[in-house]
Amino acid sequence: KEILEKYHDLFTLKWEGVVGNIRVPSQAEWEQLLTNCSAFLFYGLERFMSHILLNRLVAMNIPKCHLIILLDLMRSKQSHQRITKSDIHKSCLHIAIERPTETAVLLSLTGVRSIIANQWYTTLQENAERLEILSESLLNIGRTTGQTVHILQK
User: Nearest 10 degrees: CA dihedral of 121, 39, 113, 130?
Assistant: First the structure.
């Protein structure tokens, strides 16, 4: 919410989606947001792919999406319990496909042009700092995604 308020005058008037932890988006909402966006930001707990149905994602066509930013792989006690219960019903192959590299490959195959994503688990504070850097670099300064990723790597 702080990011939305801070960059309100730049681009965020055109943003739509689900903000907060009031509810989890439905599968239809995920699909609608992904197919109608030019950029998509996921800032949430656990693996992004644990929130969306794999078979529905691979059938999607998302060529209008130029950039997906996945600030996922954060963990709380509750999210860890949820994901553990969910993973019991998945095959080892399905869980492997939800890893960061595989997620990037799947998103790329659906037509997404650029993907910025975490490679390993992180803290809420570290992802908040990444989101601030990404927002400042991309929205305020106007750096390219490559320049912004280079800054994040430092």
Answer: -30
Q: Which has the closest alpha carbon to 113: 148, 72, 62, 147? A: 62
Q: Name which of 81, 21, 22, 20 is nearest 50 in CA terms.
A: 81
Question: pLDDT per residue over 59-108, tens digit each?
Answer: 999 999 999 999 999 988 888 898 889 899 999 999 999 999 999 999 99
Q: Which residues contact 140 (CB under 8 A, 6 or more apart)?
A: 7, 10
Cα angle 19-78-98, degrees, rounded to a multiple of 5? 75
Q: pTM score, two decimals?
A: 0.88
Alpha carbons 152 and 134: distance in angstroms, whole number: 8
